[in-house]
Predict the structure.
Amino acid sequence: MINGIATAPSGPRNDNKFFMKKKLKLGVLVSGNGSNLEAILKACQKPSFPARVVVVISNNPEAFALQRARKYGIPTVVVAKNNEAEILAALKKSKVDLVCLAGFMKMLSAGFIKKYRHRIINIHPSLLPSFPGLHAQRQALEHGVKITGATVHFVDAGCDTGPIILQGAVPVLENDTLEKLKRRILKVEHKIYIEGLKVIGRRVIKTGRKK
Ligand code: GRF
């Protein structure tokens, strides 16, 4: 058991029916555009994908992500901006196994994280631990790094400090603008979020952390 998730030995056994039988029930928390949500929803359409979205929860009634969810026939819940009790109730009602933050613009409290210990993941637009927090792409551009990227990680009580699941690198080009860089990072986010869900869903996760 690593991070509360059962692990399996590597090798062909990971693909057998035992590991694929029960799909993880995902609750996706959003606040805005929802392109990561849509990448997840698309992936879930594949029968072999080890997860399915059971509820999309937004703390912003205007979030475009809500329209994306409805297009896929997924139940949506809109909660008041800082109301964690409403989020917890919605997650419980849908019997969510894993909470996926996808552009959710609110730090969750330590109490919330404790309730879903090792069962909350996030996508962040930098190679953590570099550039945590807001405006990660701008931070990278302003710092002058030559390579940045995206990270899928477990959520702990810190700001983007939880154990890393997967990362994808994105080169910063000579004539990059913030918008161009954001777009290229977003493409990688969509890929690694899906890959991250696959390793969690197939219970074959290694975060690289000893503690
Ligand atoms: C992404 O860049 C994600 O890394 C960050 O917020 C943005 C959300 O984009 N946490 P979208 O709503 O998934 O399009």
Q: What stands out?
A: The first strand starts at residue 24 and ends at 30.
